[in-house]
Write a structure and sequence with these properties.
63% of the residues lie in helices and 4% in strands. It has 21 helices and five strands. Strands 3-5-4 form a three-stranded mixed β-sheet, sandwiched between helices. A two-stranded antiparallel sheet has the order 1-2. α8 packs across α9 and α18 packs across α21. The radius of gyration is 24 Å and the shape is globular.
Amino acid sequence: MQTTDTTTTRVLKRKPRTYLSEDFIVDTWETISPYFTELVSREIDSVEALEQWMRDRSELESVLTEDLGWRYIRMTCDTRNEEVTKAFQYFVSEIEPKIAPFDHELNQKLMSSPFVQQLDQEKYRIYLRSVNKALEIFREENIPLQTEISTKQQQYAAIIGNMTVTLDGEELTLQRAADRLKQNNRQVREEAWRTIQERRAQDREKLDDLFDELLKLRDQVARNAGFANFRDYMFASMGRFDYTPQDCFDFHESVRETIVPLLTLQDQERKQKLGLEELRPWDVDVDPSGSAPLEPFKSGDELLEKTIQVFYKLDTYLGDCLATMREMGHLDLESRKGKAPGGYNYPLDEIGVPFIFMNATSSLRDVITMLHEGGHAVHSFLTRGLTLSAFKHPPSEVAELASMSMELISMDYWDIFFEKEEELRRAKKTHLETVLETFPWVATVDKFQHWLYENPQHTQEERHQQWVHIFENYNHLEVSWQGLEQFKPYIWQKQLHIYEVPFYYIEYAMAQLGAIAVWKNYKQNPQEGLAAYKRALSLGYTVSISEVYEAAGIKFDFSTAYIQSLADFVQEEMAKL
């Protein structure tokens, strides 16, 4: 493995603009619209002129999406700042709706050009396929609905971001309070769990009502576009060309048959090791060995420095990616009041250096999140040189392969975080257990979403009942919820994807399978395994999902037999710890 001096960093600059002026800034629609008008009216008299037109359009898209990106980043970093919230809302309400009709016109202009057939069909086949699908589902009447949806989705982040609890006289974010669920003292765990659930319960009606509004709007968007339901619309919108809803249902069943029994056995062992008559919800995160919670870092700066070291041990290029982001200030890692929940890597197409946002406290989970988002960041760097912005945005099944694989292939260097051998062993074992736990939780959320949108007229009570039914078939079958039943119907409200990015979730499970396969290859041949990982990601979205997986040396497969084989490999690795 290559290593290098982590102090060697650089600040990357965006490529010179060739279409927009260097001093162009996104201000009002009046400053933007002339460029769209010119692209719509431009005469194209050759295939070379068509490709230049496509590059110019891509440059405009990159500038606009990067500006929106920074507005979103600033808003999520401080949900209480009215000025940055208004800046984001202005773009969503005043600029985006005006872009949509032009996007449609530009797509029509592209596909009706007599020179489109002279384009390199191998280079552009995926892009042209996506443009065709966008043309099929576009409806002008959906533009104001999409604006309203974006505004309401933002309300979710504001509600969750303002949730805090007080424990031992200290006001804590829910993320920091959840760290107490790893404490050995069962009373401390129970108090933290109940306090968190009670705080969430205060806003459950507000969140239920918000989802009702989103459900109605999304269903209308789907019906306007000629789809039977929002699920079918989203499969088209997200470019799910490689699998169907029935494949998802088959996956749900495969997980129930193969993974749920394994996790049930693990919970039975956990109960025995903890010496409990019954497991409760606050018992599932504590280390059953009785050891103190792992504390791999004490600050966001330390988390970042150690992660950079891990990346450099893996590969010089990987380390340079994160070191460059640190030099440019493209990270906000620590949890604090007023910050939106969750974590993300936001691609910034024009400069090509993404931004990582997360809510770190001091846990192993935070290390995993940082490695995960770091994998996304590497993906952004690897696609930085692709000619069109559309090439840089593969579907989630590929994007999450980048992040989840990084969690696993970096494990050989986790001694940077865990100097003691016993702590390192615990960290790896805990994470591999979490890898298996990914599958039933993803199956739960995905199955729930299919039901939500297949039955858009459901009542809140029917929604709660369906959630509980699915949850109880997939998650911690050994855990007793006696006396806590009032909390269970609302657990889904903590999953921001359901509110903000509907149907973006099963990709985590598909990519988790791929990541295990990447890790398996890496364990057998680190040099070739890492090279294949980078080679696959550098393709961006110039080939299909299955072709990306093939380039990585793995299969895009979620059959029962494949899931079982990879679960067996994870168990074999756990047995070595």
